[in-house]
Amino acid sequence: MSLIKQTGGYVPRDRNWQPDALTPAYKTSIKRSPQAALLSFPTTLSEESSPVFGHKLIGELDNDLILNHAQTGESAIGPRIIVHGRVLDEMGRGVPGALLEFWQANAGGRYRHQKESYLAALDPNFGGCGRTITAGDGSYELRTIQPGPYPWPNGMNDWRPAHIHFSIFGHGFAQRLITQMYFEGDPHIKLCPIVDALKSQKAVDALTALLDMHRTVPMDSRAFKFDIVLRGQRQTYFENRKEGL
Amino acid sequence: MIQKLDYLQESPSQTAGPYVHIGCMPNFAGIDIYGGDLGAQMKTGAVQGQEITINGVIYDGTNTPLRDVMIEIWQPDAAGLFPSANETRGTPDPNFTGWGRAPGNMETGEFMFDTVKPGAVPYPDGRMQAPHITAWIVARGINIGLHTRIYFDDEDQANAADPILSRIEFPSRIPTLLAKKTGEGAYRFDIYLQGPNETIFFDI
Ligand SMILES: [Fe+3]
User: Fold this and answer.
1) Which of A59, B27, B29, B111 is a plausible cystine mate for B21, CB 3.0–4.6 Å?
2) Quick one: A52-232 is in which CATH superfamily?
3) Cβ A29–B143 below 8 Å, yes or no?
4) Is residue A118 among the annotated active site residues?
5) B168: which chain A residues are within 8 Å (Cβ-Cβ)?
6) What is the DSSP letter of B84?
7) A73 to chain B nearest CA, in Å?
8) Residue B99, domain extent
């Protein structure tokens, strides 16, 4: 008999894969990046635990950005899409019960935020936020409109590729992650200083969702597939031994 | 061909951007949805232990407050138990969530948490850690969320024996991890992203 015990701590972050804090082409990072070395230590109970977000938390329309801020009988304007995928850990196991929160600009590239000043019109039926919790196999889906690209103050003519922001809460605070999903074929991906913080084409590809005709709803919505990977927890095997021996 | 280690790579991080509030605290951003923002309240009833507040500002390398930041904290209850699904050491305080999420004020950058003083929890080798709160900071210009810890400047003995604090290469930087007591049940924890007072950030 063997017992698998997932208390071996989380596998360290691969800092050669994750973006650096300082990426000068993304100008704001220059004064917001720590300069001293990070202090490395193994995860402890504080990082190996996390709050519990029950499925009861989620309302019926929380993952439907087309309807969750729309007046009755109306819906958000823009290309209707489904985004779906799985939340996995580095060992390839599905992560059930993960909280996903997402936010995005509307089809014109405009956010609903008091500090947003882009001249594209607000859509009265679009709030731009949603959330869901992954199912037992780590799968999730949401429905929204495809966001537009938008200009931002960095260089004189920088535009963000169309993207959806994702915040992911797994089973340990060590897994906490915020990232962005891009769309296959967007020519702005190659031009964006924020995307360029990523260290390799492989890393860019890991954030680029593919058109998924299998999940498209004919005459209704196209679909894009976006899997998310969280840090994995080491497994410790005890073979016919009591813990601690 | 030799075998492959078929592990996956963690999804790369990207900045939370200037509008993180829309996704994570939409009511604060003026979007009336969900019936309230997650993490805004850490207490759901009468809690055990000492109730405390922690206030602070996060400064960039020009000493300007970050006014578009989001900070999350996670901590055990007053007895040192986490309100987590994998807590096996006892029953945590049912009226305490352990998790808080706060924005920096849009004018001043000030954040505030209304919580309890955490109990001590063990390090993996069994030694006790000093009471602390783990914190995570995201904002525009931050490519990957910054982890740090909030310890307390009125816990001298526990801090001196803490397995992590006692291992820090530059002891002069330890005060950057100490919340300063400013009154009964009140602490201040300012965070500096750069400069001579740069806060210690963790690679955990
Ligand atoms: Fe954005």
Assistant:
1) B29
2) Aromatic compound dioxygenase (2.60.130.10)
3) yes
4) no
5) 39
6) B
7) 18
8) 20-192
Chain B contact set for A176 (CB, 8 A): 72, 136, 145
Domain boundaries, chain A: 52-232
Cα–Cα dist A47/A122, whole Å: 40
Look at residue B186 and tell me if it is in a domain.
yes
First vs last C-alpha separation in chain A: 16
pLDDT grade, residue A238 (50/70/90)? low
Scan for tokens 């003026």, then name that residue: B30
* Spacing, Cα A194 to ligand 1 middle (Å): 10
pTM here? 0.95
B195 by Cβ neighbours in 10 Å (0-12 / 13-18 / 19+) ranks as middle
Residue B165 neighbours by CB under 8 Å, 6+ apart: B130, B151, B159, B174, B177
CB A104 within 8 A of CB B26: no
Tally the domains of chain B: 1
CB of B153 closer than 8 Å to CB of B181: yes
By residue count, chain B amounts to 204
* B191 contacts: CB under 8 Å, gap ≥ 6: B56, B57, B58, B59, B137, B148, B199
pLDDT tens per residue across span B46-81: 999 999 999 999 999 999 999 999 999 999 999 999
For residue range A122-174, what is the model confidence (pLDDT) as tens digits?
999 999 999 999 999 999 999 999 999 999 999 999 999 999 999 999 999 99
User: Would B7 be classed as within a structural domain?
Assistant: no
Mean pLDDT over residues A90-106, rounded?
A: 97
Hey, are the CB atoms on B141 and A176 less than 8 Å from each other? no
pLDDT of residue A55: 85
Contact B16, B103 (CB under 8 A): no
What's the CATH number where B186 sits? 2.60.130.10
Instruction: Tell me the chain B residues in contact with residue A15 when contact means C-beta distances shorter than 8 Å.
Output: 203
